[in-house]
Amino acid sequence: MLLQGKQALVTGGRQGIGLAIAGAFAAEGAQVAVCGRGERPEAFPDELAWQQCDVADPAQVAHMAHDLGGMNILVNNAGIQIEKTVTQTSDDDWDRLMGANARGVFNVCRAFIPTMADGGSIINIGSISGNVADPGMALYNASKAFVHGLTRSIAVDHGPQIRCNAICPGWIETGMLDAGFDLAGDPQRAKSDALARHAARRFGKPQDVAGLAVWLASDAASFATGQCFTLDGGLTAASPLNPGLF
Q1: What is the pTM of this model?
Q2: Would you say 21 and 48 are in contact if contact means Cβ atoms under 8 Å apart?
């Protein structure tokens, strides 16, 4: 029970990585609230509280912060992916993606940091796409680079009261994975090639991210702050040579 007695908020926890993190926190003893833009989903786990909130709206975030009060753990997971290059991107695309992925993280941190308990842990969900550019996802790549930079700034400005780290997943088995491969001329070949480039020879699962999040949220990670932890099955450790051909 690594998180016994702690209060946690996970944004964007309706499904995928966010739901896996929320469930793992609850299993370790935390009281967990999850937020999303819609109403509480049907058959949502009873042990998780639900807050309806669009994190891109600072007024809604401020209201949620007032309702929930001080948190020990904050996970900024809410985000979307748009598969477009810069020249294909519209102003509406910018507002939607940067509102959720960049401004949303900023809004939540700004609202909750003043009331977080000493020793609090903020975990931002970044991406390897913030370090290396995935083709056809210009805004998504840029938004995750913003998250990484904000993570370091919060750690520097608000330590030692608060630790702030980012988890930078690689290809995780969610809806975003298939949407990315669908950009390729031959999606199945692209997926097979990507698997061969993973030292783990598999894609990640939401539970893989949740395991690292539990550690970062716990007192066992008390000396970890300002870091962006890559979790990609060894994908970015490899050279451009395809190891599946050797």
Answers
A1: 0.94
A2: no
